[in-house]
Design a protein that fits this description.
Elements: H1 2-32
């Protein structure tokens, strides 16, 4: 049970980190290429 909880915690952390890095990539892309909107990358 304890191991499962730890696994869920690390999974949530990696998910949050992915979300944050995605936002950073979008911000940098919009800064580097202001004429291209970030949602055009997806």
């Amino acid at each position: 049970m304890q191991k499962d909880r730890h696994k869920t915690k690390s999974f949530a952390r990696s998910l949050l980190f992915r979300k944050l890095s995605d936002q950073l990539i979008r911000q940098q892309a919009s800064v580097c290429l202001p004429n291209i909107k970030p949602n055009e990358f997806y």
